[in-house]
């Protein structure tokens, strides 16, 4: 069975709204669109490309799909070639831009549709798509969570763990890597069950 990867750029306070540009998502008068641009460096760029190796499908929310569909078909390069040839599944009830080949709508039942994708593909990546990610988190419909945590605090904007997030166990897959500009690459896998609790007094006595 395949894996569902969520790949997100975030600030230290968990904001993931509109990292790519001023007009990406201005909902709620968000004033910091494009906050990631000054913090990108070659290390992060290489990490992003390396993380795409093995990807065989994209799963996107509607806003991210529209941004990608307007941009990537007209671009050249490794990422453009990859995105343009991959099958793309979109969480939306509205018709898609027919100009971006191999695009189709996700089934109406999100849970069943995502499980079907896992039967069909090995590595499905959800990039951005923050509103749709809330559904995946709430339903535990993901297997891997990759975050690039940037050294800024915004104090406003949509956050990764916002509405509907349920208690979930995660395991760090590899050591955290810092880029020259201070961004941290953190990769997790989702584990079964819910977080345990304990008593720190007991822990202290045992150690």
TrEMBL record:
UniProt-recorded Gene Ontology molecular function terms: 5-amino-6-(5-phosphoribosylamino)uracil reductase activity
Gene3D superfamilies documented for this protein: Dihydrofolate Reductase, subunit A (3.40.430.10)
Name of this chain's protein: Dihydrofolate reductase
Domain Bacterial bifunctional deaminase-reductase C-terminal, residue spans: 5-174
Signal peptide interval: none
Organism for this UniProt entry: Lysinibacter cavernae
Domain of life where this protein originates: Bacteria
Pfam families found in the cross-reference section: RibD_C (PF01872)
Entries under SUPFAM superfamilies matching the protein: Dihydrofolate reductase-like
Biological process according to GO: riboflavin biosynthetic process
């Amino acid at each position: 069975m395949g894996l569902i990867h969520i790949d997100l750029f975030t600030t230290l306070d968990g904001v993931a709204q509109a990292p790519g540009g001023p007009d990406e998502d201005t909902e709620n008068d968000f004033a910091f669109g494009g906050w990631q641009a000054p913090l990108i460096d070659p290390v992060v760029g290489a990490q992003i490309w390396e993380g795409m190796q093995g990807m065989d499908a994209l799963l996107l929310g509607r806003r991210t799909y529209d941004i990608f569909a307007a941009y990537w078909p007209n671009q050249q390069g490794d990422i453009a070639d990859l995105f343009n040839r991959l099958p793309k599944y979109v969480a939306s009830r509205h018709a898609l831009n027919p100009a971006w080949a191999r695009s189709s709508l996700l089934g109406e039942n999100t849970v069943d549709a995502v499980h079907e994708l896992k039967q069909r593909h090995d590595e499905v990546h959800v990039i951005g798509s923050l509103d749709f990610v809330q559904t995946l988190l709430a339903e535990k419909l993901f297997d891997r969570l990759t975050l690039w945590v940037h050294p800024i605090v915004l104090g406003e904007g949509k956050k990764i763990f916002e509405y509907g997030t349920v208690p979930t166990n995660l395991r760090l897959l590899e050591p955290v890597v810092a880029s020259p500009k201070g961004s941290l690459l953190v990769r997790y896998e989702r584990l079964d069950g819910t977080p345990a609790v304990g008593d720190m007094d007991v822990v202290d006595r045992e150690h």
